Amino acid sequence: MVVFDIETKIKNKKQIATHCGYIDLDWLTYSTSPSCVNTFIEDLLQMRISPINIYAHNFANFDSFFIVPILFSKQIKISKMYVKNNSIIFLHCSIGEIQLVFRDSFLYASISLNEILKMFN
């Protein structure tokens, strides 16, 4: 399982990914470059386990907008996509034997990450 988050800044009235961090069962990885989302996808493909379940809080309304174009650019096949109210809530894709399964954790805990942290002090 992998959990990730993308941070952005506004440049020329457009959201630009500037930071991407993710944690898997072993360690935290953090990238701060314009290609951080691409680096994240490349890292996933190097894990050599399958399927990889990947969660992002608010994937449907934010993170998917950065992930999907990278998947297309790498010719990663999207085999299942569930959309609700024009938002991607589930995405299953594969390249070769590697399967990536993206989910929105907000669907499981529909409060902000800040509120979740407060619950655990």
Low-confidence stretches: none
**Alpha-beta content class:** alpha/beta
The CATH superfamily turns out to be: Ribonuclease H-like superfamily/Ribonuclease H
Walk across the major sheet and give the strand order.
Answer: 3-2-1-4-7-6-5
Distance between the termini: 24 Å
Order of helices and strands: EEEHEHEEEH
Q: Return the CATH topology.
A: Nucleotidyltransferase, domain 5
Q: What radius of gyration results from the CA coordinates?
A: 14 Å
Q: Any idea of the CATH class? A: Alpha Beta
- How many helices? The count is 3
How many E-type strands? 7
- Global shape: globular
Largest sheet: 7 strands, mixed
CATH architecture level-2 label? 2-Layer Sandwich
- What is the helical fraction, as a range of percent? 25-40%
What do you see in this structure?
With 121 residues, the chain is of the alpha/beta class. The protein has a single domain (2-119), classed as Ribonuclease H-like superfamily/Ribonuclease H (Nucleotidyltransferase, domain 5, 2-Layer Sandwich), CATH 3.30.420.10. The protein has helices at residues 36-46, 59-73, 113-119; strands spanning 2-11, 14-23, 28-31, 52-56, 77-84, 87-95, 98-104. The chain has a 7-stranded mixed β-sheet with strand order 3-2-1-4-7-6-5, with helices on one face. The longest helix is centred in the middle third of the chain and has 15 residues, at 59-73.
